Fold each of these.
Amino acid sequence: MTEFMIFYAPFIVLIGSIIIAFWAASKDGAVKDE
């Protein structure tokens, strides 16, 4: 299990950061439209 986390954690963090970046960008766009 520890090896699984060590191998996959960077990918999970990368995917999570991309999702957060898209969410923040869409929210920022909504703010600019107002």
Amino acid sequence: MGSPAPVHVARAVAELHGHGWMHGDLQPAHVIRTVDGVRLIDFAWARHLGETPWSAFRGTMAHLTAPEPAAEITVGSQPVLTSFASDVYALAASLWTAVTGDWPLDYEAVGIDRKSAGPVALLGAVGERTAPLVGTEVWPEFQQVLKDVLLADARNRPSAAELADRLTALGELGR
């Protein structure tokens, strides 16, 4: 059946957000394609806008955690609340990983061996925004759309629907 088209994934996230829910743990393994379309799975860290369903959020995969919750996690602030913007960051990072086969941040550029470093070191690099994006250019036009998301602060990050529209403008992605 193939992997889900990026536009369909972004629209699934937009639909979830439209109902007031944040996934909280978007990653490539939490998106599946069924005969009925793209489905998001694993809602263990999901929350409804205005609710705090857990007392301690320690993050998800460091490589996919947005800078704002990563910074809160590393300083011990609780509860750390995921947001629509942090979901969109995770979505862009997941799509980056899908197209390049690599995580979006270049930890080695800041002296971190991502394979041996613990989550605190990785989350610190994400939260402090010290690790630049990797230089892998597999699909420059597609990656530029994702770069705009990954480099934006939370206030300026597009919504999932806006990201879907930007990806749609690239052409073949929605098929």
